[in-house]
Amino acid sequence: MTMQDKKTWSGRFTEPVAELVKRYTASVEFDKRLAPFDIHASLAHAQMLEACGIITTQDLTDIRRGMTQIEHEILNDKFAWSLDLEDVHLNIEKRLTTLVGDAGKRLHTGRSRNDQVATDVRLYLRHAIDELHELIRSLQSAVIDLAIQHTHTIMPGYTHLQVAQPVSFAHHLMAYFEMLKRDAERIIDCRKRVNRLPLGAAALAGTSYPIKREMVAELLGFDGVCENSLDAVSDRDFAIEFTACAALTMTHLSRLSEELILWMNPRFDFIDIADRFCTGSSIMPQKKNPDVPELVRGKTGRVNGNLVTLLTLMKGQPLAYNKDNQEDKEPLFDTVDTLTQTLRIYADMVGGITVKPAAMREAALQGYATATDLADYLVKKGLPFRDAHEAVALAVRFAEQRNCDLSDLKLEELQQFSSLIADDIYSVLTLEGSLASRNHIGGTAPQQVETAIAQARKYLAGPN
Ligand code: ARG
After folding, report:
1. Pocket test for ligand 1, best of 37, 204, 323 (most atoms within 8 A of CB)
2. Per the confidence metrics, is the pTM higher than 0.70?
3. CATH level 3 topology of 114-362
4. Residue of 448, 438, 417 whose CA lies nearest to 164
5. Nearest to 91 by CA among 109, 110, 115, 116
6. Marked catalytic residue, from 89, 152, 160, 234
7. Architecture of the domain whose range is 14-109
8. Half-sphere exposure (CA, 13 Å, Cβ side) for 377?
9. Domain 368-435 in CATH 1.10.40.30
């Protein structure tokens, strides 16, 4: 083997790695994005080694100098990434050694790439979580800004995608606020389990050097250390959990996307989405397609796929580290990228929605949306609910035959179905009356929704 073929770990090997294998096993193409976190973690590790008397103060000074230069090179695209050096860790270590000599070779004392990579991924993910949390909150803010204008805008609420009962558009939007609130809570809760330090686990069993893991944890802003060295280098449950959180957020946005697509369809015509989020057709000049919501719906599939990838990656692995874990990065990075871009675009898109209240109202008037209100009216006058349900079903059939709404029927006509009906019924049958009557926490009455929005604003003004 010539010196050129020599790998960091090649001492015990008698022939060089085959070219294909080199490419197959290398991860530098994608894990180089961990570089800032790798450097940050290495500097903390080196500081601890120095404090514990494992390396000299001169070594630490040299390592810091070298790393500053490397950071600069990476930032300015001057760093020569090498596939031969496999991954981000060995690329940086090798360059450090070239720049500062023996101090660079001492950096890896008391550590392994196994605890190193686990640390880098956790630092990366913690950073991503903090950014994503902010983005979720920005989207929530955009949802509120739209909702506050529409507490009196009435649309049909649906079950089975059939007109069910009238709700306000604000109430409908605020349902998504609640979903996003849980998404934000979930991601922050997940952060607790991400934010633990693997370094010190070394390859798997710990290290014989007198290290201080708590010091490194503190320097890197971890809440504590991973308590078992085998677990520290082996499990990627934190990445799986994060991806599950992301899949849920994407699922919520996918559902909203599906609604935006329906609402934008001319048969509904409830909303318009700003042109900048749509595209035309190359053949059909009349088309305006809701590409962004459709892509969100589609990209939810890839995030769900990433979750299954990571779960499958983990399920057959014996303790402790296995190279399988190198495969955690692409699905994780892809999840972060996809969710980040989706949240960014979504906040802007929600801000660009034009609402068409007249069409919403028209649709609510067409589907006997206040039938339940008539039944409730009869119950309040003493009729058992099942009997009221039956009477109203007959009234709806009657109105259907006449092609009119319940509120268009004359009092005598309505009274055929129950003698309990009096002329106070007409205020009950209006859309406004229906909304106003659902006046309890979580109901669609404008007053309740306004309170919900005010509370939502307060929540967003707070820290979490
Ligand atoms: N590139 C590897 C990964 O991403 C780093 C850890 C490799 N450790 C080892 N002993 N081969 O998982």
Report:
1. 323
2. yes
3. Fumarase C; Chain A, domain 2 (1.20.200)
4. 438
5. 116
6. 160
7. Orthogonal Bundle (1.10)
8. 24
9. yes
